[in-house]
Specification:
Helix content: 10-25%
Structural class: alpha+beta
Shape: elongated
Largest sheet: 10 strands, mixed
Strand order of the largest sheet: 4-3-2-6-7-16-9-13-11-12
Strand content: 15-25%
Number of strands: 16
Distance between the termini: 24 Å
């Protein structure tokens, strides 16, 4: 299955083969640095700091005073920024593990003063302060940061486009500050270089040492909040699962979460580019409700599709980009590996496509799926990028196809390797002769 991210897209699930990009990067939580400097949030110079914030090491401090004094002074007057930078400044030589601990111990969100100081230090003081590749590795957590930074340094800073002067650091900081799924999605809209385009090369070059697709620090810390009392304007983009070509003329309607016989009147039709016109309006949920709902997509030559975005909507706008199956795609699905393992596509049952993502919305590796209820005919096939195999866990595509799913409400669990509990649990509707696409961001 292919996952294609857009800077402002709430992406669910698409295609049978190719990974396109990654989402904002969030690291693994660890204990913050200890000692007087870290506890006080100051690098140790206090009022003696010429430019408000002190950095360990004479060369780094001299560079800060020469090149970044206005930014440091502005940070000093901002409590959140000064506490974080005080902790970062105590990390001698820009130690990446130390900086990562600070980043997660003192989360500031999208703080302009912090972003501007970080950008200045990255562009003007990278060498003296020990910040190769603008210190991007610190966003991956203390466990990954040293290896991640080493990899970046040997690959000509694959993540450099997520460095100084870009909106990417703001997006990363914003993502750290929010543990509600809908707000995390909105962090990607801070600028055209805030998200996947800026980070795609980093994921390709250093995905393993940076633990991309294995960031689970938000598990157990996600906030479950009811959506605000407002409708959401949902921009939908559809394309064919196999050819990846835009799907035009598809009718789209909205259903409530567990409506078993929902046949909504179409609210929009996709144009030649696959975009819904007009955007689909998702009504405000009842007060205190955590209902999510789903879309129903129909059209000439299309296999009926249900699309679950997977969490309550609270932002005024969101974007779904997902693939649909054509009737002709079913034979290709079997050719990709299903029939090889004595499975078939039974039209009296449902097909469910699932994609697990980690805490940074990157397709999750090392995840297994299970579905209940199930029987001997129900099989999970994991996508390897060109083939489907009946054994997990997920590759860097994070996805699987479940065939011959009993009709009715089914519950799917995604469990990362090494976990004794799932990262995501979602209940969806399986319908005879229909395809259900379910995004599975962490929700536990």
């Amino acid at each position: 299955m292919r996952l294609a991210f857009r800077p402002t897209a709430l992406v669910i699930l698409v295609g049978l083969g190719v990974l396109a990009a990654c989402r904002q990067l969030v690291g693994i939580h660890d204990d913050p640095p200890s000692g007087p400097a870290a506890e006080s949030g100051d690098a140790g110079a206090g009022d003696a700091a010429v430019c408000g914030i002190a950095y360990a090491g004479a060369a780094c401090e001299a560079c800060l005073e020469t090149s970044c004094c206005p930014e440091a002074n502005a940070c000093k007057g901002d409590l959140a920024c000064s506490v974080l930078e005080g902790c970062l400044g105590a990390c001698d030589g820009g130690d990446p593990a130390c900086r990562a601990k600070c980043t997660f111990a003192h989360i500031v969100g999208a703080d302009t003063n912090e972003t501007q100081l970080a950008a200045c230090l990255g562009s003007q003081c990278e060498g003296p302060c020990g910040l190769p590749c603008d210190g991007v590795a610190e966003y991956f957590g203390a466990d990954a940061a040293p290896g991640c930074q080493s990899c970046l340094a040997t690959t000509s800073c694959a993540g450099q486009t997520c460095g100084v002067g870009s909106a990417c650091p703001s997006s990363l900081s914003c993502a750290l500050a929010y543990h509600t799924l809908d707000r995390l999605e909105a962090c990607a809209g801070l600028g055209p270089d805030a998200g996947p385009t800026a980070l795609a090369s980093l994921a390709t070059a250093c995905g393993a040492p940076c633990l991309i697709g294995q960031q689970w620090e938000c598990i157990g810390h996600l906030e479950t909040t009811a959506p605000t009392a407002q409708a959401t304007s949902l921009q939908v983009e559809l394309f064919d699962q196999v050819s990846a070509e835009p799907v035009s003329g598809a009718a789209i309607g909205v259903c409530t979460p567990f409506a078993l016989d929902c046949a909504p009147a179409p609210e929009a039709t996709t144009d030649d580019g696959g975009f819904a016109v007009p955007p689909v309006t998702v009504p405000a949920a009842p007060a205190g409700s955590l209902q999510t709902g789903y879309l129903v997509v129909t059209g000439v030559g299309l296999y009926p599709t249900l699309i679950y975005w997977g969490f309550p909507l609270s932002e005024p706008t969101a974007w779904i980009e997902t693939g649909v199956l054509s009737n002709a795609d079913l034979s290709l699905l079997e050719a990709a590996g299903v029939s090889e393992y004595d499975a078939s596509v039974d039209p009296s049952r449902g097909i469910v496509g699932v994609k697990a993502v980690d805490c940074d919305y990157t397709p999750a590796t090392g995840v297994t799926f299970d579905v209940q209820p199930a029987d001997a005919e129900t099989q999970v096939f994991y996508s390897t990028g060109g083939a489907l195999i009946p054994t997990g866990p997920t590759t860097n595509l994070g996805s699987a196809i479940i065939v011959d799913v009993p009709t009715g409400l089914v519950t799917i669990r995604a469990t990362p390797a090494g976990f004794d509990h799932p990262s995501s649990v979602i209940t969806v509707l399986s319908k005879a002769g229909a395809f259900t696409a379910a995004g599975m961001p962490p929700n536990q």
